[in-house]
């Protein structure tokens, strides 16, 4: 069996979908342990999306607070 036949194949579309699902989870404020993929490659795509979604959520919250005249609270990031 060749290496190509033995290795799992992840399509760009499936990894994009995993990333988008992670992004939406991060944007919605879900915990990272809600990651649904058992395989490492789609799990990594989901996690990358979650990190980006979480960052976007934080930026949006900061912008809302700034517009409302609230002083931003500095938080430690994990």
TrEMBL record:
<protein>
    <submittedName>
        <fullName>Ribosome modulation factor</fullName>
    </submittedName>
</protein>
<dbReference type="InterPro" id="IPR007040">
    <property type="entry name" value="Ribosome_modulation_factor"/>
</dbReference>
<dbReference type="GO" id="GO:0006417">
    <property type="term" value="P:regulation of translation"/>
</dbReference>
<dbReference type="Pfam" id="PF04957">
    <property type="entry name" value="RMF"/>
</dbReference>
<keyword id="KW-0810">Translation regulation</keyword>
<keyword id="KW-0963">Cytoplasm</keyword>
<dbReference type="InterPro" id="IPR023200">
    <property type="entry name" value="RMF_sf"/>
</dbReference>
